[in-house]
Specification:
Length: about 110
């Protein structure tokens, strides 16, 4: 956490109003880091390790992706054109799923 604070401090000294996005793996998805980011105007996106609960939540999307990849022989990319139920937004303010994109891209291609 100290290293993130040091780097953010250096960036803010030079560009005080810049929007910062911390992107990290599931090992960083901890309450203390998320709370620090929220207090310090740092947006964040954390990857999630695959687990049984996550797979259960995404079973429809995973089945679609597997079928689409088999049909087209290319990686499947879920997006707004893909039929199916809408997914709920992030569970907490400031958090975002990796597929949603940063909050400032909302309403644009690749955004949530």
């Amino acid at each position: 956490m100290e290293e993130v604070a040091r780097i953010v401090g250096q960036i803010r000294r030079h560009w005080p109003r810049v929007r910062i996005l911390l992107r990290a793996g599931s090992g960083f998805a901890r309450e203390a880091i998320m709370a620090w980011c929220e207090r310090n105007r740092v947006d964040f996106v954390f990857g999630l390790a695959r687990d049984a609960r996550l797979v259960e939540e995404l079973v429809i999307d995973l089945a679609w992706a597997e079928e689409e990849a088999s049909r087209t022989n290319r990686p499947a990319r879920p997006g707004p054109a893909r039929p199916g139920p809408a997914r709920p937004g992030p569970a907490r303010p400031g958090a975002s799923a990796t597929s949603a994109g940063p909050p400032w891209t909302a309403g644009r291609a690749g955004g949530g």
